[in-house]
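Recall from the previous chapter that SMILES is a line notation for molecules. Here it describes adenosine-5'-triphosphate.
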Amino acid sequence: MQQTAITVTGLRKRYGSVVALDGMSFSAQPGRVTGFVGPNGAGKSTTMRVILGLDRVSAGEATVGDRPYRSLRDPLRRLGALLDAGALHPARSGRNHLLWLARCAGLPASRVDAVLDLVGLRSAARRRAGGYSLGMRQRLGIAAALLGDPPALLLDEPFNGMDPEGIVWLRGFLRAMAGQGRTVLVSSHLMGELEGTAEHVVVVGRGRVLADAPVAGLVAAESGDRVVLRTPAIDRAAAALTGAGGDVAVAGPDALVVTGLAAERVSALLAAAAVPVSQLAPHRATLEDAYLRLTREATQYRGAAGPATDATARPGEVRR
Ligand SMILES: Nc1ncnc2c1ncn2[C@@H]1O[C@H](COP(=O)(O)OP(=O)(O)OP(=O)(O)O)[C@@H](O)[C@H]1O
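With both inputs in hand, we obtain:
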């Protein structure tokens, strides 16, 4: 399979006074799933449309392999894309939708049955696509992206509308695609799904890249040297730990997050001060923790403040 990176360099785009892309640059590499995440309005869909040559930019360029998508002679055999699962004729069956696409692209009808099997849609293939659930439409869109057996895939929110079984399937499917050496660029709002699926993540906000890093590295950096402990005596515990140089944040009625002291030292200090402890463990952050911190400044649309959670409590922040 020909290795085909998806690369965007210095993309800039405005819609009137709205800056949609503000120097967006990153590269999705072959052989791994790259998550593409960011708050609403961060520029993910615009970037994907630019990669597909559907939107123009005022500066920068996007390439598939080493060429712009529009200049590819056989685009479906180079990059498969799912932008909008609803983009189909509702009266046409799923199979006929794919046959029509295959015919337009000069691909054999045998590919249609092959991709229907790949996405598990064979039994529903002759039903009207207009009657499909959102999860089934996502599968049909993924099937369409696979028609040309391309070395690169670009999928906008493919987890959206999938039931738990579908999500498990899609996670394994994306990993398998990358395992075959394909480039897989996938946008999502579901950090938990990406943490188990993507090895690498590009976090964006306000039209630019905030982080471009391996998921494991982001999670490790976010976890830091923090210790989570539960105790019915948080005031005494906090006094003992701050007295020894720890940085203590309250993370719940009986929970503290301690920074700057190893778990063994925390345990010894609390034992010496006769503080009862019901739980003590090194804190393991999630991709969502890292995401929320990275995008805190870049989130444009936010609901009213809700209660803080343990996961988002940071050293020095006292939240009850
Ligand atoms: N056709 C358009 N006309 C005007 N503004 C647009 C248009 N498309 C996108 N925008 C604006 O450009 C910015 C980026 O939008 P985009 O849809 O790329 O973000 P996104 O990261 O995909 O968001 P979401 O997660 O909500 O899908 C937003 O401020 C959006 O309102």
